[in-house]
Design a protein that fits this description.
By secondary structure, the chain is of the alpha+beta class. Helices cover about 20% and strands about 15% of the residues. It has helices at about 15-25, 35-50, 70, 75-80, 85-95, 220-225, 225-230, 235-240, and strands at about 5, 25-30, 65, 100-110, 135-140, 155, 175, 185, 190-195, 205-210.
Length: about 300
């Protein structure tokens, strides 16, 4: 039965990277304090309890997935900005991008009776034609204990280059068993999936993933954390969720009501900017704080 390595968050980054490149995954033990995890859970619990279960087998009929973590919880902002993970993103992603960004933040609650999830690679989110780069680095922070019985993530260590249609046998699968505050770190290329919950209580994890600055994010961060909220965040987090340029020419914008915009430029859609646009979004207000992106070109 394969096992995941359990490493210390204070270990040198090069040691963590060595295991990540070899196995595609490992556990960082006690990377957050139990208190921080408990506080974060208190902030997120009402949203999780109000979340509907998944609508297909992959998302899980007995699983809830709750997003918009940055807008909803100060504690999850701290997890998202974790310094060890930041360093790992730099090592792992920056060979292929100038900046990385948040890909998604999601509380995954696997409830009693949820069968195991199909084993997959998260990079398939972009389709199987994306090859030649490592597009993402992923984490799942344990909020509850993760055990084999309650749905600890299944991981196939070293499977990054295995065929997409590999048929997995039980003796290839490791389980990310860990205590609250520990975090599973895994690449977008390693095979994994949620575990079966055969117990009577929930398995709760916070899935936080990071991607190359030039790829489309899985969770739309501009809608999940719109500018009126984002402008109050620290600049590092604003940039991480996407309020910056993804690279030299990616992601610029022009404030629609910028002084001096000629009549030829102001199109009919901006005439609605005083109120609500047809799609229900606020008009100019959505892009209100032009300063937010000022340093985009720096
Ligand atoms: O919840 C888990 O343990 C893993 C879930 C997962 O891999 C996914 O939904 O993509
Ligand atoms: Fe996954």
């Amino acid at each position: 039965m394969p096992k995941l390595e359990v490493l210390d968050p204070d270990a040198p980054i090069k040691d963590l990277m060595k295991v990540l490149r070899r196995d595609g995954a490992f556990i960082l033990k006690d990377a957050a304090s139990r208190q921080d995890i408990a506080d974060t859970w208190q902030e997120l619990k009402p949203y999780v309890e109000a979340t509907e279960t998944g609508s297909d087998a992959f998302t899980g009929f007995k699983t809830t997935r709750t997003g918009a973590l940055v807008a909803r919880s100060a504690g999850s902002r701290k997890l998202i900005l974790d310094e060890t993970l930041h360093q790992m993103c730099v090592e792992f992603l920056h060979p292929n991008c100038a900046r990385h960004q948040l890909h998604l933040g999601q509380v995954i609650r696997i409830m009693p009776g949820q069968p195991r999830q199909a084993i997959h690679k998260d990079r398939w989110a972009w389709g199987k034609h994306l090859t030649g780069v490592e597009p993402q680095l992923n984490t799942i922070w344990a909020v509850t204990e993760f055990t084999r019985e309650n749905g600890a993530t299944q991981v196939v260590p070293g499977s990054m280059d295995w065929a997409d249609d590999h048929n997995f046998s039980e003796d290839e699968i490791a389980y990310a068993e860990m205590q609250p505050g520990s975090v599973l770190v895994y690449t977008g290329s390693v095979f994994h999936g949620g575990g079966e919950n055969a117990t009577q209580s929930d398995r709760i994890g916070i899935n936080i993933t990071y991607t190359l600055g030039w790829l489309r994010q899985e969770e739309n961060q501009y809608l999940s954390c719109p500018p009126e909220i984002a402008k109050h965040l620290e600049p590092q987090l604003q940039k991480l969720i996407g309020y910056t340029m993804g690279s030299y020419a990616l992601g610029y914008y022009t404030p629609p009501l910028e002084a001096g915009a000629g009549p030829g430029i102001v199109g009919p859609e901006y005439a609605l900017s005083e109120g609500t646009r047809e799609d229900g979004m606020q008009g100019a207000g959505l892009l209100g704080d032009a300063d937010l992106l000022k340093d985009s070109f720096s």
